[in-house]
Amino acid sequence: MRTPQSHTALENPRSQSTLEDLRMLVQAKLAAAWTSLMFLVIYIDYFHLYQPGEIDEIRGGVIFEFDISGTLMSIFFAIIAIPALMVMLSMTLPARVNRATNLVVAALYIPVMVFNAAGASWDWAFYYGLTIGVEVLILAFILRSAWTWPRRTASPATLAASLDSAGQRT
Question: 3-state SS of 6-30?
Fold first, then answer.
C-alpha cells in the first residue's frame, strides 16, 4: 500500500531536495563558540572532581595547590564569568568593538586554558591534553571568526554620495 503524497511532494522531486545553507551572522557564531567554551570549562572542572583524592583535598581547603580563599573563588568566578559575558557581548557590541574584544579576550584565554594542566600528573596527561586541545580549538575558531569578520564593501554610488555630503558636514 502506498502512502499518499501531498501536491508539494510531487512538485519537488527528491533529486532537487537539498538542504538550505543560510549565512550565519559572525555575532551568532562567536556567541555559540563562547557558550561551548563555557560549558566545557564547567564540565572539565566537574570531571576533575572524579580524580582520586580531589574531594579530600578540597575538604582540606586546597584546590590546585592553592589555599581556598575568597580571592581564589573570585578568580575562579571571573574565569567563568568572562566567557558568559562574551556570549552576551558577542551579540550586542557594535562590529568594530565586538571584533577587537573577541580577538583580545580569546588570545588572553589561551594561556588560561593551558594553565589547567598545572600540577597534573602524567596519569592524566591524555585527559588534560584532550580537554585543553578542544578548548584551544574553540578559541582558535573565535580568533579566526573575529579576524576574518566580513567587511562592508561600498558601491561607487555610496562613495560618491558620501563625498558629496562631506562638504556639507564641514
Answer: CHHHHHCCHHHCCCCCCCCCHHHHH
